[in-house]
């Protein structure tokens, strides 16, 4: 441990030094936030689809969330989930050196999708604020939009934290 900064190091041999990461950067916290955001996005897609079918079948009133907001959020969720699935599929620990030669096309597309979703997610707080039909009193729908916005912003923050912007260029 360095006395002036308090940084802890683990030195293995003469070539590898490992530093302790803060708790918020630890794999369990990062993985939990990623899983929660992905489940929220996937659940929103399924919920909106089932809700639209149930409303149509029952002849109920339309959703209090504007159609454009649902469309934008659904597209953003699909883009985010595609990017996460592509990156997860292509980053395999059994062939790490293949990535040094060339990035597979699906991995590049995953990086592009994740970057685009992170940029588009910056609009989600405004959509959550203005997303309901005027005059609609739907506190659960508003809460859902704010949670969805938070999930998108968590994924955007992770894309920035893991340096995924421009990764497809290599």
Characterize the structure shown.
A two-stranded antiparallel ribbon has the order 1-2. It has 170 residues and is mostly helical. It is 62% helix and 5% strand. The model has no long low-confidence stretch (mean pLDDT 85). Helix 1 packs antiparallel against helix 6 (139-161) and helix 4 (105-120) crosses helix 6 (139-161).
Strand arrangement in the largest pleated sheet: 1-2
**Approximately how much helix is present in the residues?**
55-70%
The whole-angstrom Rg is 20 Å
| Structural class designation | mainly alpha
Distance between the termini: 36 Å
Count of β-strands: 2
Low-confidence stretches: none
Bulk shape: elongated
Q: Mean pLDDT, rounded to whole units? A: 85
- Element string (H = helix, E = strand): EEHHHHHH
Tell me the strand percentage band. under 5%
Largest sheet: 2 strands, antiparallel
Q: How many DSSP helices?
A: 6
Give a short summary of the structure:
By secondary structure, the protein is mainly alpha-helical.
